[in-house]
Amino acid sequence: MILSQDSQSHIPIVLTIAGSDCGGGAGIQADIKTISATGSYACSVITAITSQNTQGVSAVLPIPLEHIASQLDAVFSDLDVRAVKIGMLADADIIRLVASKIRQYRPPFVVLDPVMVSTSGHLLLAPEAINTLKESLIPLASIITPNLPEYAALTQQPQPENESGLMQTIQELRLLRAKAVLLKGGHLDQEQYSSDLLVEGDKAELIRSARHPTRNTHGTGCTLSSAIASYLAQGYRMHKAVFLAKQYISQAISHADELSVGQGRGPVNHFFAGHMHVR
């Protein structure tokens, strides 16, 4: 953490705005674990309650707009929020509400994970809401973190099929009007590395990490975006925050098989650094 160490220093506060995953592997639950594990203080605004586990999503209940608004007002009116991570927003009305509150309270950093489809393939954002996301919320983001299917939905372009294909997306990513974009290449299973493309202003860079053979990848997108928000809140510049978050998610994935959670795609190991084997 690079905050000044004077007597007035406090733990940086990160707000996650997302859906609840009762299985604990993704959504609000993954965000809070990640923010805590990376050294920040997590608070939350829940936009939807999902019924899900490692095998899939069986139901989604959006929270009433007035209660999302009251949660946001409660947090922003009292806490010094240094960064906001935004995940599942469910529909266009929720997107517009969150965008209006971001404009009202102007947090220093906004990390937007444009959650559209769960790991198990369940649709988490109404298709008609994609344009609302592009028009009202993405331009407010410090960085957005789409995966390849989300990139295709946002740009109406085919998904890249390899690492060189990632580099061909740079112009399309800039047209999305976020200050920075991290295009996640985790779906490129045939590649030796897990490569993400960071586009920031006129710069573009591939950030690589080892690819770990595990099926326990539930909540990886939530975890990566929350880690970026946590490091931005701590004062790191964008490139360094992304680099540190990439290191964190890579280690959380590499330690995922130490857990035995559920019968499907299990979660990553958010607390790998302090993991203890209990007899």
What's the total count of β strands? Answer: 9
- Could you tell me the CATH topology label: UDP-N-acetylmuramoyl-L-alanine:D-glutamate ligase
Task: Provide the residue-averaged pLDDT.
Answer: 88
Order of secondary-structure elements: EHEEHEHEHEHHHEEEHH
Query: What is the number of helices?
Result: 9
Largest sheet, in brief, is: 6 strands, mixed
How many discrete structural domains?
1
Radius of gyration: 17 Å
Instruction: State the end-to-end distance.
Output: 34 Å
GO molecular function: ATP binding; hydroxymethylpyrimidine kinase activity; phosphomethylpyrimidine kinase activity
Domain Pyridoxamine kinase/Phosphomethylpyrimidine kinase: 21-269
EC number: 2.7.1.49
Protein name: hydroxymethylpyrimidine kinase
Q: How would you concisely characterize the structure shown here?
A:
Pathway: Cofactor biosynthesis; thiamine diphosphate biosynthesis. This protein has 279 residues and is of the alpha/beta class.
